[in-house]
Amino acid sequence: MNIEIIGGGIGGLTLAATLERVGLEYSLFEQSPNLRTTGFAITIHSNALHALRSIGLEEAIRNKGNAISCLRIATPRGRVLSEMHSDMIALHRADLQATLASAVPATRLHFDARIVESEKMTWIAAAEGVHSLFRQAVVGDELPPRSAGYTAWRGMSSPGAIEIPVSMQTTAVEFWGTGMRFGIVPLLNRQVYWFAVLQEDVASQACATDSKSFLSTQFSDWQSPILDLIDTTSDDTILKTPIYDRLPIKSWYRERILLLGDAAHPMTPNLGQGGCQAIEDAVVLGYLFGACRDGRLTESSLGSCYESLRKPRVDRIVKQSYRVGMLGNLNNPLLTRIRNLAMILTPETLHQRSMRELLTFTEPFVCY
Ligand SMILES: Cc1cc2nc3c(=O)[nH]c(=O)nc-3n(C[C@H](O)[C@H](O)[C@H](O)COP(=O)(O)OP(=O)(O)OC[C@H]3O[C@@H](n4cnc5c(N)ncnc54)[C@H](O)[C@@H]3O)c2cc1C
């Protein structure tokens, strides 16, 4: 089988690591001169950690990040609205990608290699992200991405700039206000990853070069250490990203082109699942390539098998993530109060149950 992976992001690298484990030939092409990361840090949930376990990389990823055992949602003044147990790792994106790449021989990785078309007999695993060109070959013309109606800023404090109390070092907190949110995720080495989310009409007033003073004004009366976090982060390490997704498409493959990760299903980041689902896609697809090589699956059924194992689950997550964003960014004070009350009254076991399916990765029927 001739397999080409297009894109050296989380999805492409995980697929390369899986094919390496399966023992198949492949090449990975990345348009950038080296591994490219955008956005400082990332959280990897238990479902993706399970997928990484099945290719022998779970421990390596756990060792690179901070273990988060509690996810909390609170009001801007810190009143707890919901709390649930978690098994999640927060780490630098560069460390995640470097760890995935460490499982792949350098000779397989081709940088400065932008691929826009494919050979007839080659399997293309299109992992080139939200602006995927191969997606167009699968889907045809489609509507532009759907705006979620809000914008996120991401930043990372320098080591030791903010001291998180020991009791909170394994807790990720999201503060939900009216039409705005702020998240705090402790990392290793006394660093903190944070994000701020504001409605589009407010976000559009921000000056491109001075995010800090804009965000400080917006969050001026919010719970400590939000202001300190913004203050101690330099402006050139704050990244502003309008949030959007795409509605689920009919099919993830056409002939020998298979989509994975953001190329198949760009989603809002509210559940922290975009990268996690790219990891799941890649592990399943890699194992299915192995099943074809072993004669347990025909190449003509590869696309439909991959799609039936992955697409229904991911379609649900794309929708769930969008809904969580709508709830978190409710812009009406009365509705916000009702939301908060409902969250306080919901037992933790129910919060936990609503997340169970999301956080469970089902291994494909073949393993290597
Ligand atoms: C604000 C925000 C916060 C997020 N937080 C989280 C989180 O906490 N947890 C989580 O799991 N997810 C999170 N995500 C989502 C996550 O970042 C993405 O889902 C993930 O990066 C997708 O990985 P990918 O490999 O599919 O695509 P990408 O990471 O976009 O990688 C695509 C790669 O393909 C390359 N490429 C593009 N075109 C070509 C071409 N023609 N030829 C060769 N190479 C090409 C690009 O250079 C790039 O390296 C977040 C997203 C946002 C916006």
TrEMBL record:
Stored SUPFAM superfamilies: FAD/NAD(P)-binding domain
Record key words, sorted: Monooxygenase, Oxidoreductase
Residue stretches making up the FAD-binding domain: 4-79, 122-321
EC numbers for this chain: 1.14.13.113
Domain of life of the native organism: Bacteria
GO molecular function term, any single one: FAD binding
Top-level enzyme category: oxidoreductase
Pfam family, one: FAD_binding_3
PANTHER family, alphabetized: MONOOXYGENASE, PUTATIVE (AFU_ORTHOLOGUE AFUA_6G14510)-RELATED
Name of this chain's protein: FAD-dependent urate hydroxylase
Organism this protein belongs to: Bythopirellula polymerisocia
